[in-house]
Design brief:
heterodimer, A: alpha+beta, Ubiquitin-like (UB roll), FAD/NAD(P)-binding domain, 7 domains, 7-stranded mixed β-sheet, 24 helices, elongated, B: 190 residues, alpha+beta, Gyrase A, domain 2, Alpha-Beta Plaits, 2 domains, 6-stranded mixed β-sheet, 3 helices, globular
Chain lengths: 983, 190
């Protein structure tokens, strides 16, 4: 192949040279080039090495179906493997290199694989390495486990950067009446027709220029410009460098817009790609057709490409891809390019596989009939072609011809991928030798060559007709076809008994013999064939090889192609970067961070934060020289001694309002709520329908029809959804509205013997929170001395005299600026989740760790809260015998027998005689208890504390700290009578 | 009265960003406002609607997906049985909308109110919101509940542009996403 850039012609800008490097070599192309066209113009032939056999590969096409020039582009963090050179726009400074080769694609030691090619047939790895003879003859995978790593290392194409992706990506949504995919004659015509009829149209084109087939016909340039201008004038939204990669339910289409992949130094504020979700009323697929190769020996040599590719390189990029060109065709489509190549100065031999009527031979072209390519001669590049002619059902040699470029046209395959995503099964058209798009009940319409319409004027009409159908009009279809002389299907050319390498799927090195072997081994279903041989499973998704593979399978089975069936295409049509899928949901935005109103205040006051679901909550407030352990023990001890303040804003808060609010809560909670007085709070437990505990919390009655229900942080969303569901589907007759007010209120818990004193110091002059005015479980509206109005409830999670104080979120800082100095004045502290955990474990209070979706209200020791006088959610199914079993695991406290020892959360609780299996229970949480002076835990054990009285258990932690003898005690390990919180 | 702090305090971009000499989006926060939810019952819907329209100073209460601007505030119909009355603070005190046949709830601190305007405002919003924001589908006076990075938000379109109500606890996180994405269009923070 001796390609060269012509002095004129093409759409490139010869006044704007573009410098780039290929395998470290400095080369120059022009603005408007693709990497492939520039490499071709520079005479580069071997651009890749094949997947399995490391065979040299060159440019095979000029589009998305490229299977040879698959390269690595970019450096450092922007290094991207498996880029099709045909789709990569050239830019100044572009750096590209070959892949899957060492030391380089021109001389690759991996090519030794080709010598063993006969062993690398379909299923090679599984046959050879699973049950490796003679060591594991026919059984076992132990050796496979060893080999697998090596095999996986040897497989794969190219290597991605190990550095974090420096680019940003956006997601985007768009809506339109008509989405037109493809901007060839049919697409432009469809977009124009719909837009001129007033429809909102989005036209997407994967190329960087509009026009499709028109771009390769210099004589049609004015027509292209007129059409594009008309589409723009009609108001269609046009997206170039954008691939519609998938169609989904209800008119949704996935698009990938490549925003900066063609720019040398993109601005970092501009996303590299945008991942669009377009919702369209109707979709017109004018996605074109792809030219098929033919399977023959060495049909993958650099210098073998599709005839259409040569047309693109000549007419669009001004590159004459060869000097002595042989064209092998079985249809009329290649005759035009034959004449164009001859006019450009090449010596052209056109070999038509047909014997019958063929078009007139173009001027300057030598024509042969009835011969097909049998073998490409040459290794790193084509040096000639050996032809074959028909001999009965087979072929026989028919002479050789020298050439430096072998163009092949084995027919055309309409791009039916997108409608196939929607389940439209393509059907085989015998006379056109291709699959045409199948029927679908969805508003998806095909136009142009995607519908098998070959001639340009027919494509224009087809586009207009598809647009009118998309607008709901009854329109006569444009019939597929358009060639004067019929195509003669030829899928493979081989001599009887030949086993030379002749490729069906270039990207995965699947040969015709592999397909026949699969058939021999019983893989007769096309789905099995695909998986066994990996045919069509590479990045081109079978764009080049699928039809040939089907034809060969049909031949082996003695069936026709439609009887073999076809696999369904799946998204994406072309690869989509993971970064584009992720969009901006990366790093700190992987999930939205939820901040309490005191987030920044907490950070300013020394909080170390921890994740609590999507929240960040203060974990501990270390003072100088403290680690987490010292900090939380000090904080917990301070709460018991003086006072501590804890940010509890993340608790779920639901306003329950309406005349039936009491009735609603009474049905939801296990205990009685009907008679809760205004100004009082009550602790409640709610069950699921199946009788298992869902959540707990306090509910405050603020008014006759006005409640504030609190939930755990973890279950806030779930409880809110549950309330809505109950009201909408189960009890629509109840006049109750529920609204999340979690974000409205900032909440703090002020706990400790001096809690009342600290709060009192912050209240407006006429406020009183004495025990008489605000007793245990009392609730009041309250005003702070800086005028902030809030709510106060005397409730305790820590077991101390404690209050929860809520103010509107925007006034959280102002509240703390009063409370914190008052607490500091009595040697109080701020405390975080860790100390909160300590305090509640000492008291045996449960959290999400204990309410884990497995336990009953009896298991947590609160069975007496389940009313026997009323019905509530879960009241029936909690009576199941399994849930009433006496030896169920029940909530207990846990002490180490040797008080100097510690044990870990997650340990299993076992009988000392049977430290095995799941044991008798488990530990949910542990802490060092400053109040008790040793480590304690909380958890569940069969039969509860009563069953383990005077009996030692073992906290078994086989993979971490080993076994510790423990004593099982009541979960109320500190102040069991609750004297302190009632004080 | 103590100062009311915006959730976005300390998270505001330091500078405006130009893109090709222009700023495609103007971002602003309405830091101080009253947001009152009025929920009716099926049998009191019309009566409550009439009452609150009068209170807000508009002709009628808006139907689903619509907003009506009145002299005292704007009513948004955010659910079949619920309206929001949005009042900019400092105009004329709070409008009373209480009554026996409804549930009234103060949500002023529960939301962060961001205003977006400029030629790229809808494009920017569509990076996150799966809503058709065309003039035909979402004209002035439209209201929608939608999802922004999996978080429920409320969008209302008025004459200058879009009003986005974010749950306060997620406001900083969503605001960061908006600002980061707005860089590509250039922005001005008002």
């Amino acid at each position: 192949m001796t390609a060269r850039r012509l002095d004129k012609g093409g759409r490139i800008d010869r006044s704007t040279p573009v410098n780039f490097t290929w395998d470290g070599k400095a080369l120059t192309g022009y603005a408007g080039d693709t990497l492939a066209s520039a490499l071709l113009a520079n005479g580069e032939r071997v651009l890749g090495r094949s997947f399995k056999y490391h065979r040299p590969r060159g440019i095979m096409s000029a589009g998305v179906e490229e299977s040879g020039a698959i390269v690595t582009v970019g450096e450092g963090a922007r290094r991207e493997p498996n880029v099709k050179a045909t789709m990569q726009e050239l830019y100044d400074g572009l750096s590209a290199e070959g892949q899957n080769a060492w030391p380089n694609v021109r001389f690759d030691l991996g090519a030794v694989n080709g010598l063993f090619g006969r062993f690398f047939a379909a299923g090679f790895y599984y046959k050879t390495f699973m049950g490796l003879p003679p060591f594991e003859w026919g059984h076992g995978t132990r050796l496979w486990m060893l080999y697998e790593k090596l095999i996986r290392k040897a497989a794969g194409m190219g290597t991605a950067s190990r550095e974090p992706d420096p680019d940003c990506y956006d997601h985007a949504h768009a809506f339109c009446d008509v989405l037109v995919v493809g901007s060839g004659p049919a697409g432009l015509s469809a977009a124009l027709t719909a837009a001129e009829a007033g429809r909102d149209v989005i036209l997407v084109e994967q190329d960087f220029e509009l026009g499709g087939d028109l771009l390769t016909d210099p004589a049609a340039e004015q027509q292209r410009l007129d059409l594009v201008r008309a589409v723009e004038a009609a108001g269609a939204r046009i997206m170039t460098r954008t691939t519609a990669f998938g169609l989904y339910d209800n008119g949704a289409a996935g698009l990938l817009e490549r925003v900066t992949d063609h720019i040398a130094s993109p601005d970092e504020g501009i996303p590299r790609q945008r991942f669009w979700t377009v919702r369209a009323g109707a979709t017109v697929l004018a996605s074109g057709a792809l030219e098929r190769p033919v399977t023959f020996e060495n049909n993958d040599r650099p210098g073998v490409m599709t005839a259409e590719a040569a047309r693109v390189y000549l007419n669009r990029f001004g590159v004459l891809p060869g000097q002595r060109i042989a064209i092998a065709t079985n249809n009329d489509g290649a005759y035009g390019i034959a004449g164009e190549l001859a006019s450009a100065g090449a010596e052209v031999l056109l070999a038509d596989m047909r014997n019958g009527d063929v078009p007139e031979t173009p001027s300057g072209v030598t024509q042969k009939s009835g011969v097909a390519p049998l073998r490409a001669i040459g290794r790193s590049g084509v040096e000639g072609v050996e032809f074959a002619s028909r001999s009965g059902d087979s072929w026989k040699p028919a002479g050789k011809e020298p050439c430096d470029l072998l163009l092949v046209s084995g027919g055309w395959s309409p791009v039916v991928n997108l409608s196939s995503h929607r389940g439209a099964k393509p059907f085989w058209n015998e006379s056109l030798a291709c699959f045409l798009p199948g029927e679908t009940s969805e508003p998806i319409f095909h136009a142009g060559s995607a519908a098998g319409v070959w001639r340009r004027e027919d494509c224009l009409a087809s586009g207009a007709a598809a647009a009118r159908k998309a607008m709901g009009e009854e329109v006569e279809e444009v019939a597929p076809g358009g060639w004067k002389n019929a195509i003669q299907p030829v899928y493979e050319v081989r001599l009887p008994d030949s086993h030379a390498k002749a490729f069906v799927d270039y990207q995965h090195d699947v040969t015709g013999d592999d397909v026949r072997l699969a058939h021999q081994e019983g893989f007769v279903s096309v789905e099995h064939l695909k998986r066994y041989t990996t045919l069509g499973m590479a990045t081109d998704q079978g764009k080049m090889g699928n039809v040939i593979g089907l034809a060969l399978m049909a031949d082996a089975l003695g069936k026709d192609i439609p009887d073999v069936g076809t696999t369904r295409f799946r998204p994406p049509y072309t690869p989509v970067a993971i970064g584009a899928l992720a969009g901006r949901s990366v790093a700190g935005h992987f999930k939205a961070l939820r901040r309490t109103p005191l987030h920044d205040w907490n950070l300013r006051h020394g909080a170390t934060m921890t994740d609590a679901g999507v929240w960040h909550r203060p974990w501990y407030y270390a003072r100088e020289g403290e680690g987490i352990e010292e900090a939380y023990i000090r904080e917990a001890a301070t709460v018991r001694k003086t006072v501590g303040i804890c940010d509890v804003s993340s608790l779920g808060k639901i306003a329950v309002q309406g005349p039936d609010a009491s009735e609603f809560l009474n049905r939801v909670y296990t205990n009685a709520f009907a008679k809760l007085p205004v100004g009082k709070a009550r602790y409640g437990i709610m069950l699921r329908d199946d009788g298992i505990v869902m959540d707990d919390g306090t509910t405050w009655r603020l008014g006759e029809e006005d409640y504030l229900t609190t939930t755990t942080t973890a279950h806030a969303g779930k409880v809110m959804v549950w309330f809505e569901e109950l009201l909408q589907s189960r009890w629509p007759d109840l006049k109750v509205h529920v609204t999340s007010v979690s974000d409205h209120w900032a909440g703090v818990s002020i706990a400790g013997p001096k809690a009342r004193e600290v709060i009192a110091a912050c209240l407006a002059a006429d406020e009183d929170i004495s025990n008489d005015v605000l007793p245990f479980m009392g609730v009041a509206r309250i005003t702070l001395k800086n005028g902030i109005e809030g709510l106060i409830a005397r409730i305790s999670f820590s077991g101390e005299l404690a209050y929860e104080l809520y103010v509107p979120a925007g006034q959280a800082d102002a509240m703390m600026n009063l409370l914190w100095p008052a607490a500091e004045a009595v040697d109080g502290c701020l405390y975080g989740l860790e100390a909160l955990g300590t305090l509640r474990i000492e008291k045996g209070h449960v959290t999400g760790a204990e309410l884990d979706g497995r336990v009953t209200i009896d298991d947590v020791g609160l069975g007496k809260m389940a009313s026997a006088k009323k019905s509530f959610v879960g009241s029936a199914l909690r009576q199941r015998s399994e849930l009433l079993r006496e030896n169920r695991p029940q909530l207990v406290g846990i002490f180490p027998v040797d008080r100097s020892q510690r044990f870990k959360g997650g340990s299993l609780l076992c009988d000392p005689d049977a430290v095995t299996g799941f044991g008798e229970g488990w530990i949910t949480a542990v802490t060092h208890s400053p109040a008790l002076g040793h480590w304690i835990g909380i958890g569940y054990i069969s039969g509860g504390a009563a069953a383990w009285k005077d009996k030692t258990a073992v906290a078994a932690d086989p993979v971490r700290s080993g076994n510790v003898d423990v004593e099982i005690v009541s979960p109320h390990m500190f102040d069991p009578e609750g004297v302190r919180m009632h004080g | 009265m103590a100062e009311t702090l915006s959730a976005l305090k300390g998270h505001w971009p330091r500078t405006n960003v130009d893109r090709d000499g222009t700023r495609g989006v103007t971002l602003a926060e309405v830091a101080s406002f009253h947001l009152t939810q009025i929920a009716a019952w099926p049998d009191s819907l019309a009566r409550v609607g009439g009452d609150i329209a009068k209170a807000a100073g508009c002709d009628s209460a808006p139907g689903p997906g619509r907003a009506h601007e009145g002299t005292n505030g704007t009513l948004l119909r955010i659910e079949p049985l619920k309206w929001w009355l949005v009042e900019a603070a400092g105009t004329s005190g709070r409008t009373s909308v209480s009554g026996a046949d409804r549930a009234v709830l103060d949500l002023s601190a529960a939301r962060t109110w961001i205003r977006l305007s400029g030629p790229k405002a809808s494009v920017l919003l569509n990076h996150f919101l799966p809503l058709n924001l065309s003039e035909q589908a979402f004209p002035e006076g439209s209201v929608a509940s939608s999802s922004f990075h999996h978080i429920g938000v409320t969008l209302w379109r008025d004459e200058p542009g879009y009003n986005l109500f974010l749950p306060r606890s997620f406001a900083v996180s969503l605001w960061e996403l908006l600002v980061e994405s707005a860089v590509q269009y250039g922005y001005e923070v008002a």
